[in-house]
Amino acid sequence: MFDPVCPSDLSPIRFADKWGGMVIRCLEGGPRRFSELRVPLRGITAKVLTQSLRTLERDGLISRTEMAGPIRHVEYELTALGRSMLAPMDVACAWTAEHWDELIDAREAAAS
Q1: Is residue 59 part of a domain?
Q2: Pairing of strands 32-33, 73-78
Q3: Closest CA to 48 of 27, 65, 23, 84
Q4: What is the extent of the structural domain holding 57?
Q5: Ramachandran angles phi, psi of 86, nearest 5°
Q6: What is the rounded distance in angstroms from the CA atom of residue 69 to the CA atom of residue 28?
């Protein structure tokens, strides 16, 4: 999904918004800072990432924690509700992989 040659948007199944599923996957391993999310999500702008994070937070899928200290920063983390999205996402990814060729054929036919 994070490979630059992988057309992640091929899947017709969306979680939250265009980037929501990928943000959820990035947080699967634990909390991350904004700048740490930008690395695997190299195609996203700061503005769009901010919007996606706010949407996921509004929907209760992630939490935002301001960390105090000498260097203040914010961390994002999956909530229990967000973590419960991982299993349906696995199913959607498996379905997309199974129907990859059909999806590509349909997209190419629509483009011509």
Answers
A1: yes
A2: antiparallel
A3: 23
A4: 8-111
A5: -60, -40
A6: 25
